[in-house]
Design goal:
The protein is α+β, with helices and mostly antiparallel strands. The chain has 11 helices and 7 strands. The strands form 3 sheets. A 3-stranded antiparallel beta sheet has the order 3-4-5, with no helix packed on it. Strands 1-2 form a two-stranded antiparallel sheet. A two-stranded antiparallel sheet has the order 6-7. The N and C termini lie far apart (85 Å).
């Protein structure tokens, strides 16, 4: 029997805790990425498809019945196309619709109305054609610009990898001093004065890890760990350690031994020592 919720299969034995950050390479991810993950996955997004009610109880006007207020978020579906546009927090709502009072309800999907529009980023100095909704345009106008909208909105409300990646690019350029406006120093300084207040919310490390998916973060930490590994052949490492031990022991033969260099740093390989001259046939 299919479960009514995505975690329904786990409810039989209790909710299982995620092991993304407790085992393997995930345990070595920095706190900077965990902060972004909490903003993206754990923070409660703003209500978009329903109007939340204040208080704990409500009274019916006709019957006078008192019932508790339950602001339960609607289950939303994020299709792959949502990551290719900026939907302003909207998603697909799955439910039922009773189209005829004398017939049973039927499944129905409510899909946001999408349109193609052009947005402008002052920091990136670019115009971009993206797929948006009416709510996206309203949010941009309410925040007085596309850059302000991305910088003020947390990742859980953006609900789009395109918007999150653009937000990271804006933060990176803002941290670098808006290099795309270097030809116009006055405009560059004006943009820095307007948007530099957002940098106080992040450290350079947090900006570096911001906007990465879990797979991208694992690949990045793996590259960092591999770069710290000494990739020289073991025989060279062991020989160097042996020479150092002999020097510490006071062996005369080891005192004049020069420090071993890698194979790549050698002036000539054994192939260069071979002198081959073709004969005249």
């Amino acid at each position: 029997m299919a479960s009514a919720t995505p975690q329904g299969a786990n409810l039989l034995y209790g909710l299982r805790k995620s092991k993304k950050f407790t085992e393997g390479l995930g345990a070595q991810l920095p706190l900077a990425y965990k902060k972004f993950w909490d903003e993206w996955k754990h923070r409660q997004p703003a209500a978009v498809h329903y109007v939340p009610k204040d208080g704990m109880f409500q009274r019916e006007d006709v019957t006078g019945l008192v019932t508790p207020i339950q602001n339960i978020p609607l289950p939303l579906i994020d299709p792959p196309e949502a990551n290719q546009g900026i939907w302003g927090g909207e998603a697909i709502v799955k439910g039922f619709q009773k189209r005829n009072p004398y017939k049973r309800r039927v499944p129905h999907f409510w899909v946001p109305v999408l349109k193609r529009s052009v947005v402008h980023s002052q920091i990136l100095n670019e115009h971009m054609a993206v797929t948006v909704t009416d709510r996206t345009l309203d949010q941009i106008h309410d925040n007085h610009g596309f850059d302000h909208y991305l910088l003020k909105t947390p990742a859980c409300d953006l609900r789009s990898m395109l918007a999150i990646k653009l937000k990271k690019l804006i933060l990176v350029d803002l941290l670098a001093g808006c290099p795309k406006h270097a030809a116009q120093p006055e405009k560059q300084q004006a943009i820095l004065d307007e948007y530099s207040c957002y940098l106080s919310q992040y450290t350079p490390e947090e900006i570096d890890w911001y906007g990465l998916t879990y797979t991208e973060a694992i690949a990045k930490i793996q590259d960092q760990l591999e770069s710290q590994i000494d990739k020289r052949p073991h025989k060279l490492i062991f020989r160097q350690k042996l020479i150092e031990q002999l020097k510490e022991a006071g062996i005369k033969e080891a005192q004049g031994t020069e420090e071993l260099k890698g194979i790549e740093d050698s002036s000539s390989s054994w192939l260069s020592k071979l002198s081959f001259k073709p004969k005249n046939w």
